[in-house]
Amino acid sequence: MVVSFAIGRQALAQARAAHTVDSFLAIHQDGSVTIFTSHVDIGTGISTVFRQVAAEELDIPVERFTVIEGDTATTPDHGGTGGSTGVPRGAADIRQAAATARRALLELAARRMNRRASDLTIEAGEIQASDGAAGVSIASLIGGKRFDLAVDPKAPLKQPSEYRIVGQPVLRADVPFKCTGRHVYLQDFSVPGMLHGRVVRPPTLGGELVSYDETAIRAIPDIKVIRIGNFLGVVAADEWAAIRAARELKVVWKDSRDLPGSDDLERYLRESPAADQVVVNRGDASGALSGAPKKFSAAYYWPFQSHASLGPSCAIADVTDAGITVWSASQGAFGLRAHLANVFGVAPENVRVIYMDGSGSYGTNGAEDAAADAVLLSRAARRPVRVQWMRQDEHGWDPKGPVQLLDVRASVDAAGNIAAWETEMWLPGGPPGERALAGPELAGMKQGHGQGAGLMTMNADPPYRAAHVRVVAHNLRETPLRLSNLRAPGKIANVFAVEGFTDELAAAARVDAVEYRRRSLDDPRALAVLDRAASMIGWRARPSPNPDAAQGNFRVGRGIAYLRYKQAENYCALAMEVAVERSTGRITVRRIACAHDCGLIMNPDGLRNQVEGNIMHTLSRALHEEVRFDQSKVISVDWVTYPVLRFPEAPPVEIALINRPDQPPYGAGEAASAPVAAALANAVFDATGIRLRRVPFAAERMKTMLARA
Amino acid sequence: MPNYSFRVNGKTVTVDSWDPDQPLLYVLRNTLGLHGAKFGCGMAQCGACTVLLDGGAARSCVTPIRHAAGRSVTTIEGLGTPENPNAVQAAFIAEQAAQCGYCTNGMIMAAQALLDRNPHPTLEQVKSALEGNLCRCGTHTRILNAVMRAARA
Q: What is the ipTM metric for this complex?
């Protein structure tokens, strides 16, 4: 690993010119190929897809490709990881660069071989003529040299019918190393002269540092305490020394006490000043509703949740007079570079962010904050510093998936189908722009206080035929906790409300839940996933709740949910079979069946892995997860106080991947998360006759509701 | 400075530690350069740091180095290599049972400990043995498939 800070002019030019072939691809003299990208593979397997698309267009074996990700000095900026853009944007850009390169190589070979380019083919990196004349290897044509070509958006691409690599379950290159302890994570990395750092955080989120006393840590070897305003940290050559010093340093803080607490957020949301946003307005929903003889209404609630990454965030920073180098697992290396440059007052060209794999993140976890902590400590210590967040740091201080409250109202026609629908939601918020970094905030540095949580308001309207639909969002001007774009932001809660409420309307009309949806959907791709999921779970048509739910102490039932992600991307239907234990309120998911259509499938194994991951992750969020905080601090700071799904609860999951090679490919990092909570609540209703409208579906809450029923 | 001798992956090592209560996790990672075992919580709540101590699964984040003295430690590096994975590792690779892979060390070590004492567990026994191992990416399905696959091998 090259630690040197010198950034060559060529590499910088390469980084800026995001649309040249050379910014994405380098073909070497030995025939191997390096792909450069800003889309980092945080465990999704997307880097395998990148190898596949480039290998396909160039007809070079996929094993010869490696990927360099997220280095602001050497990779182009074509977007960070997030928003399910890895396939539709990241892979598309690389594919187009490879296609441009292919055409250029064929033209070069044509001149060399005195043939027409259209008479040449490529096989395993060798360009051949159809008449068997002596060919030429790609490596000998271009190896070690630059193309000096802009990416041509019109360079011809292979057709799906020709694919030999795309669409195959190509194995990931990193898995053998991860399974044998040889994969170097960010957390495993070190640079020469590096110190270990730990931040000593106030016990309350807005605490002020009054004083500290080093007497207690005098026996710990080679410790230096660093204070900048309210930011307090320790650095040491030995990691355990840094941990003990941070723990044992005596500190006096002035506590803050300005949070609403997590128990009464519904009232906080309804009463705080907000800006209104009309998201959808079709027909005249309020008019139709006010005139309706019968109206239905319900409120749904989704709490603040945390990434709670298994490995707490980590960063290494090396601050010198020349600038800043940061090693980070952030999903957006270029965004982090700009952010750090801004906050620390360093020109962006003097800040280098180098991505390394960390523990999985699903939007924005503590990675950027850890980076800023490391910069603060390195700048003060004048040495490279590695900061490793502890468990309480990650749970207590990472930016959070927002709380959401939704009121839903509807009226139905004579057949019970939706006539008019209103969704009204309340969301915490703040100004646009970069969020405040925790360490610089404590250090009293000037920075923006943006609250970016992603596209929160999508999928809050039903996907079913309805003449009058209105969605309004009340965007609060503030938030008690910093916000993050946690996986499928907003859309999980929106679909929880929409698919839960649709289910309520179906039950009120005494219509089977699948049939109720089917008859108001026209899109054949929607019907296909709905029917497939129903078939896989063994759905028998009848209204809910289940007349035969009783099985001793258990109540059993099944539920289903459907969506089209962002109303324009993946089609996904998910069905569940559950058993609810009456004496404890514990919900056991017996089976899950999911039908998923994301258009053209790039790698069916990688896709299946992502869909499974979405489902299990969100099952954990629906059953267990809630950030709890009091007036001063987050109090759910470890795996006991922030419980998550454990193996004994993991149900068998059956997944049908519907491949549509004639359709554009969508990303699969988020969509299958969206229907999970709704399908679960619908299954619980089928089993018990009780509607769960508030996440998490904790056993104690279920037990209380069962006792009341 | 006091030192501690123990076996790691079949070799005897002697390490210095200024603190007899320094967790084995940091000695393995920082002194011995064995980074397979991961820091997840430092409180034995998540299983990411799991190693085998005298053949049984142990959470290295709460095992003081003085406790390891004279004993035998096996880390994930000691089970196999990318070119030559052992049976459990090969099963995980064949099932592509990883997303970010940060939990993988704990999963493989816990699975190895289980299969060493119960070569043919039921699915329920596997789930129970892995109850203390957390995974946030949701790789549970594949991890269970991998362990059952290794059990059948």
A: 0.99
